[in-house]
């Protein structure tokens, strides 16, 4: 009775004429799954709980027929395709209640060791399954995830397996729908449970050491061959095998020890010196006799213990001095001691004068009982002229066993001091030198002066050489400029050599500057000329400048006007330079200009016998 859809048929007959336009609906194909209302055309389900997993698509043939007329009942048909949509109404189910897996004990942590699968007849997201391990036997060692592509449960290893410790594990796995439809809660729980049994397979494994790391101690200078400890490894497999030991040689330090291949005992191979090396760190490898390729490794740390073999000595070399005006009982130096041995907690050093120095009334040693001592004066004043240096032997002993001692000699220098005890000088030659300066300081000052003089001489020489080079370069530049001005240009065919803009704009050259490329015989000041008008004819301008240059004996023959007039080697007119020009215009014959072609027609008209009309010039 669930509503599916409604169909409607139309009749073109007149609805007012009998029953010709009245339509009745019926199903010709599609029963018993669907039914239709004959009047409204509403299609509904005819069976309860239609299962998409059984059949997904249905074709329903529907007929619409009118109720009468002269031709009898006329009918029309149509086909309706109905597809069932999936809902999450089926729980997942395991195909079997127990899954058996065999896993080698050598499997790595995090690796997949097996797969199980529950079946859900739904489709799409309604068939997505979530797997969980029920807390129990294998909850700590195993984990399970869902493969999104196959919806399988992938069992993974969380901790290493050991056949010798436990050979089998049993736990339960629950499969449930990830997306639940609350409309179908009444159907039942949408989950299923199965049991997983895992059997651990025994594998041939390497030996196992009894400790993760071994620490041993040995005294320095222990005789060679002394056993200082042992390591132990066992084969835990069912068929136990013997174990062999050897040192993993990496450097020469490992040669200080040896190991018994069968027993695993470690012995010294050379004399050890704590002051040279206080700790040794190396590795020992254990392998199975039945399968030498199966090995395991462990670190061994050996600490070398100190033996009191070195006597204590004065920690630093002291520069001790005493004033000439010193008083008895005055402390002139505090001394400390050091021992190359590893001093134990509470190590004490004692200080005293040697037996031969105890009878001399110059200095004494006061032991402060805290590993320090003071050097004190025993007489009233010392003379530098009588004795400049005193050598004081001090005996230092330690408190370790066996007791070690040494005699250390302090050098005490007599110095001249002021009334406050401030040292002024400690040697005889210093008396004759200025206050505050020694011989070494004077020598250093003289060396600095000599170096400064050498630097100044080199600097002056370089400056002179640079000035000479600059002058030579300047002369060469002048000579180059003269050669440049001798260039007559490329002639009328060269349109890029010169700029003739000055001829078209007379104002540009109004300022007549003194030439700098040659040195004139006499200094000639520029002539002041009235400024040319903007429309001054070029011919008048050229004639004016030509007369001025012809009359000026100091002007060179290669002035800029002559340069622009040079026609070059490629012109039939040859050179028009003013160098070969006559003094007056009347002495020249310009009839030959008419023979040079159309390009010189304007010049021929300007300088010919015919009258020249400027208005005709273009």
Automatic annotation (TrEMBL):
Q: Which CDD domains match?
A: Cadherin_repeat
Task: List localization entries.
Answer: Cell membrane
Question: Gene3D superfamilies this protein is in?
Answer: Cadherins (2.60.40.60), TCF3-CBD (Catenin binding domain) (4.10.900.10)
The record, for InterPro entries, names: Cadherin, Cadherin-like_dom, Cadherin-like_sf, Cadherin_CS, Cadherin_Y-type_LIR, Catenin-bd_sf
**Membrane topology per the record?**
Single-pass type I membrane protein
Q: Name one GO biological process term.
A: cell-cell junction assembly
Q: What is a single cellular component term in the Gene Ontology annotation?
A: adherens junction
Which intervals hold domain Cadherin?
1-94, 95-209, 210-314, 314-432
TM ranges are: 431-462
PROSITE patterns linked: CADHERIN_1 (PS00232), CADHERIN_2 (PS50268)
Task: Give one Pfam family, short name only.
Answer: Cadherin
Q: Which UniProt keywords apply?
A: Calcium, Cell adhesion, Cell membrane, Cleavage on pair of basic residues, Glycoprotein, Membrane, Metal-binding, Repeat, Signal, Transmembrane, Transmembrane helix
Molecular function GO terms recorded: beta-catenin binding; cadherin binding; calcium ion binding
Function of this protein?
A: Cadherins are calcium-dependent cell adhesion proteins. They preferentially interact with themselves in a homophilic manner in connecting cells; cadherins may thus contribute to the sorting of heterogeneous cell types.
Name of the protein described by the UniProt record: CAD12 protein
Taxonomic lineage per UniProt? Eukaryota, Metazoa, Chordata, Craniata, Vertebrata
